[in-house]
């Protein structure tokens, strides 16, 4: 790279709610996160899936109950979206050998034991586990149950 640049990675402070009145936040507006687990766009898609299905189920039941649609979306997506944002931030701290990851006082050129690196690798691997065990299909079942 001839002229590398730096830019700040922005993140949203975890929100208590993703909805208010008749407005819903989705994607980065609700849970903007760093790229360390590669899940930001996926979370936005899941937000749209859940909100879209809540709208469809409400209409199919004979009404467009906006407050119920929004509360259903919030109840399902807010806890998980905030979880993903927290885990993503934590993964970045691990990747960067920060004090928060147990590397107090580590300076450039210092050596880290192979055992500690193995522990770090295990911890990082565990940070990814939810990405192949969690499914939006379970959340779709919650939407269905909310409108029965």
From TrEMBL:
Biological process annotations from GO: secondary metabolite biosynthetic process
Pfam families reported for this sequence: FAD_binding_3
Keyword set includes Oxidoreductase: yes
Keywords annotated in UniProt: FAD, Flavoprotein, Oxidoreductase
Chain segments annotated as coiled-coil in the UniProt record: none
Name this protein carries in UniProt: FAD-binding domain-containing protein
Domain of life: Eukaryota
Keyword DNA damage listed: no
InterPro entries, per the entry: FAD-bd (IPR002938), FAD/NAD-bd_sf (IPR036188), FAD_monoxygenase (IPR051104)
Entry's Gene Ontology molecular function annotations: FAD binding; oxidoreductase activity
Stretches assigned to the FAD-binding domain: 15-86
């Amino acid at each position: 790279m001839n002229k590398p640049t730096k830019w700040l990675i922005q993140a949203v402070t975890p929100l208590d709610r993703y909805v208010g009145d008749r407005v819903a936040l989705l994607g980065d507006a609700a849970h903007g996160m760093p790229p360390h687990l590669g899940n930001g766009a996926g979370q936005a898609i899941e937000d749209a899936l859940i909100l879209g299905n809540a709208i469809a189920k409400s209409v199919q039941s004979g009404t467009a109950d906006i407050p119920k649609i929004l509360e259903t979306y919030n109840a399902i997506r807010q806890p998980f979206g905030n979880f993903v944002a927290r885990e993503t931030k934590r993964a970045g701290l691990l990747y960067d050998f920060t004090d928060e990851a147990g590397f107090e006082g580590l300076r450039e050129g210092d050596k880290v034991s192979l055992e500690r690196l193995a522990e770090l690798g295990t911890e990082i691997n565990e940070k990814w586990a939810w990405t192949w065990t969690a499914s939006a299909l379970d959340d779709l079942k919650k939407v269905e149950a909310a409108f029965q």
